[in-house]
Design brief:
It comes from Microbacterium protaetiae. By secondary structure, the protein is of the alpha/beta class. Helices cover about 40% and strands about 20% of the residues. The protein has helices at about 1-5, 55-75, 120-130, 135-145, 160-170, 175-180, 195-205, 210-215, 230-235, 255-260, 315-330, 340-350, 390-415, 435-445, 455-465, 475-485, 495-525; strands at about 10-15, 20-25, 35-40, 45, 50, 85-90, 95-100, 155-160, 175, 185, 190-195, 215-220, 245-250, 250-255, 270-275, 280-285, 295-300, 305-310, 360, 380, 420-425, 445-450, 490-495.
């Protein structure tokens, strides 16, 4: 049946450009049936004070991930991957991709990880009366205006990474509303950019075209967003085997596809995505009473309001520590696979003290706006009487991944935002019962992990692509609830009172120790002894 669906061109392809991996995911007639996956490892570069990815790396990585998937299809099903029924593209949200009249990029891609837009974000927050984070595209544009960068006068199109890839595949300059909400504020009544705020910005800034002319058209989940062109097919598959014509859904950000992949698009639900960054999305029942610089107001792919707690720093520092132990094992003559290293270290953390024995870990490789830092210095801190054991070390490191996130979530709790269940996805949840348990303690809320947790956004955008065929009769919430997750196996961890108390004590130290983190940023320059 799977081979027949592939041969008939009914399979659906999801592609996500994450911060460390580009993933491709192919699903069958039953979208829970993952037929094949492909991946390509990549990494951002820090060039001239800017976190970036080269656009040539984007296409090389997409080609490699698609080739990996195609080879898997041929090996498993003995049919070539020549046609697909629908395609979805997802990528890291926010950032700044600016193009001129000739469609050439004007400056290198500025990713979400850059924190050089403080003045612009502050001005826009005051102008709009809502929080404008450092990462948002409008903050990057306005900072370029404030800095009088020469390229600004030539800008004719702004988009996100997902929007850029979709544009090249289809020729259409569009964006899903969830991703668009990380470029410029969305009016929840219209599902489009807030017209009053667009006018307010145009009145403030001279020398560039009206902002609406620069931004992608906003689409909602279920809308048709173009078809794969011959040139687009060649970008994914230079061998020429992949045929054009597949329908594409609106391109989305990784936050939105994470919500879809975890069935967290209805009010009183939320999800946590843990990767290079970590963020929580909570679907709102009511507007927040106050403006909080720690909280972004974005939307689901269907356009419903969401409170987002976004932390620039996620599991990268944890992975660095795991890599150190992996190297130790190899140097000792007993090499251990990276996945097994993570499994051993995570399970060891279960034996740690509830408060991590007085140890403290900061995972700040980059600036962290919620913590008030504009640069990162990873730190591990202990007092002489701390219980310095491997179990406590690893518990502190995992707690550290959730530290800044917990600070933001405390604000939502104070705003009386109701949360029945938090769904989690990302690679660090593959070891059952560890990160999930500690996240439940950090949030003091049940945390659910599904079988597809490690597939993440690539599967989520495949669901959105498949949803296009159902959107005329179902809304997104109903589609996910009744057609995708009705019989899905989900493991739920409820907060353990001892863990909750232990993490609370850890967070008190974490908050107090931020002074040490800020001092390290001020005292230690990058690239210098």
């Amino acid at each position: 049946m799977s081979a027949e669906a592939i041969a008939a061109g009914r399979a659906v392809l999801g592609i996500e450009l994450g911060s460390t991996r580009i993933k491709a995911c192919l699903v069958g007639d039953d979208v829970n049936d993952i037929l094949a996956t492909g991946a390509h490892e990549w990494e951002n570069s820090y060039v001239d004070g800017c976190w970036t990815y080269g656009l040539d790396e984007v296409w090389a990585g997409l080609e490699a991930a698609f080739a990996d998937l195609s080879a898997q299809v041929r090996e498993r099903y003995e049919v070539p991957l020549e046609r697909v029924g629908a395609i979805g593209v997802s990528a890291m949200m926010h950032g700044y991709l600016a193009f001129g009249a000739d469609d050439a990029p004007l400056v290198p891609f500025r990713t979400w990880r850059n924190t050089s837009t403080g003045r612009a974000a502050a001005e826009l927050t005051e102008l709009f009366g809502q929080n404008i984070p450092l990462r948002w595209s409008i903050a990057h544009l306005h900072q370029a205006v404030l800095d009088d960068e020469p390229h600004v006068r030539d800008v004719r199109f702004l988009t996100t990474l997902a929007g850029y890839v979709h544009w090249r595949l289809t020729g259409r300059r569009v964006l899903g509303v969830g991703d668009a909400s990380g470029m410029f504020p969305i009016d929840p009544r219209t599902g489009d950019y807030d017209a009053a705020l667009l006018a307010r910005y145009d009145d403030r800034v001279e020398g560039i075209p009206p902002l609406r002319e620069l931004l992608p058209e906003v689409l909602t989940a279920g809308d048709a967003a173009g078809a794969l062109t011959p040139d687009g097919a060649a970008l994914l598959d230079p061998s020429g085997m992949l045929q054009p014509g597949a329908l594409l859904c609106p391109p989305e950000g990784d936050a939105g596809t994470g919500m879809v992949a975890t069935n967290a698009v209805a009010p009183r639900t939320g999800n946590v995505s843990a990767g290079t960054s970590i963020f929580a999305m909570v679907v709102l029942e009511h507007a927040l009473a106050d403006v909080h610089h720690e909280i972004d107001l974005v939307t689901t792919p269907a356009g419903d309001p969401v409170a987002m707690v976004h932390c620039n720093n996620g599991a990268s520092e944890l992975a660095a520590w795991a890599g150190l132990f992996e190297r130790f094992a190899a140097a000792s003559g007993h090499p251990v696979h990276a996945d097994a290293v993570f499994d051993v270290l995570f399970r060891e953390a279960l034996d740690g003290d509830a408060d991590a024995g007085g140890l403290l870990a900061y995972n700040h490789l980059a600036g962290e706006p919620i913590a008030g830092t504009d640069a990162g210095r990873p730190l591990f801190v202990r007092t002489p009487d701390s219980a310095f054991t491997l179990a406590n070390l690893m518990r502190a490191q995992i707690y550290g991944v959730f530290g800044t996130l917990a600070l933001g979530m405390r604000i939502l709790a104070d705003e009386h935002v109701a949360l029945e269940t938090m769904y989690a996805h990302g690679g660090m949840f593959r070891t059952a019962g560890v990160a999930q348990r500690f996240l439940a303690a950090a949030l003091n809320a049940p945390v659910a992990v599904g079988q597809t947790a490690s597939e993440g956004g690539a599967w989520g955008i495949a669901l959105l692509a498949a949803f296009c065929a159902e959107a005329s009769t179902l809304d997104l919430t109903s589609y996910l609830r009744d057609s995708v997750f009705a019989s899905a196996a989900v493991d739920v961890a409820t907060p353990d009172p001892a863990d909750v108390a232990g993490f609370s004590a850890y967070l008190d130290r974490y908050r107090a120790g931020l002074a040490v983190e800020r001092a390290a940023v001020a005292a230690i320059s990058e690239g210098k002894p």
